[in-house]
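Thread: "does anyone have the structure for this chain?"

Original post by V.I.:
We have the sequence but no experimental structure in hand. Need at least a predicted one for the grant figures.
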Amino acid sequence: MNLTIGFEVVAGLSLALAFGGMTFFSAVMAPLVFTKLPFETAGGFIRQVFPWYYLTIGAVSALAAIALLLGAEQVAALFAALSAGGFWYARQVLMPRINAARDAGEDNHFERLHRISVYINGAQWLLLAAALVMVLL
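Reply from O.Q.:
Generated one for you, tokens below.
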């Protein structure tokens, strides 16, 4: 097998996994948790899931970025790397601030930070979608 084709396969699978994981979590998992569990339980559960979500999808995005770079797909690699960086920022910086605002009962601050995390997540989703399209074309 040609080495470039191997990088493309790893990149394509990694992008598909990250994009699909994000889509499933946002469209199915989170809404289901908040509609089926009591609010306090749902919030605590999601708080435990988010670090793993950020770590897993971020690592897969980073793997895609590396494979894309090695496969000479610089723009798609940049998109995947930006997505991976967003997951690191959300996990290490934003999530602790969101949790602290919630714990302190600072509802306005929590809402603002949560909105920022949603915007970042949406941008990451679009970046991964664009990178995936670039790999498929």
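V.I.: this helps a lot. Residues 3-36 form the longest helix (34 residues).
O.Q.: and The mean pLDDT is 92.
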